[in-house]
Amino acid sequence: MKELKRLLRATGYSLQGIKYLWTREKNFRLLLGATVLVSVMGYILPSISQQEMALLLLAMALVTVAETLNTAIEKTLDYASTENYHPLIKVAKDVASAAVFIAILFGLAILCLSLITP
């Protein structure tokens, strides 16, 4: 019973995080919209196989997770820094943003490959 309460509490924290992302992070909403769009298109387009669709969904999940971690890193660094600008904080934020960008590029590559496959 104690483990169930712990699991429910952890789930509640996760849902609070999703609510925060949904209400305050435009990029998160855009990513979820893109995921829905890709899912619908994958269902409609006969040329996309189930395996390709699974890869597309995996790519979209990777991008969403990267964006979520990017937001967590940015918020933590904003809290930790009392300075208006610090070069190391800029590097950390840029690298976290680069992770999202790299995930998006791989997602686009998977999408392109799935659309041109005979």
Cα separation of the termini: 53 Å
- Tell me, briefly, the overall form: flat
The number of helical elements comes to 4
The ordered string of helix (H) and strand (E) elements is HHHH
Class by alpha and beta content? mainly alpha
- What Rg, in angstroms, do the CA atoms define? 18 Å
- Estimated helix fraction: over 70%
CATH architecture annotation name: Orthogonal Bundle
Low-confidence parts lasting 5 or more residues at pLDDT below 50?
none
Which topology does CATH recognise?
Helix Hairpins
Give the C-level CATH assignment.
Answer: Mainly Alpha
Summarize the structure in words.
It is a single chain. Helix 2 (26-44) packs antiparallel against helix 3 (50-80) and helix 3 packs antiparallel against helix 4 (87-116). Helix content is 87%, strand content 0%. It has a single domain (2-116), classed as Helix Hairpins (Orthogonal Bundle), CATH 1.10.287. It contains four helices and no strands. With 118 residues, it is an all-alpha fold. The mean pLDDT is 90. The longest helix is centred in the middle third of the chain and has 31 residues, at 50-80.
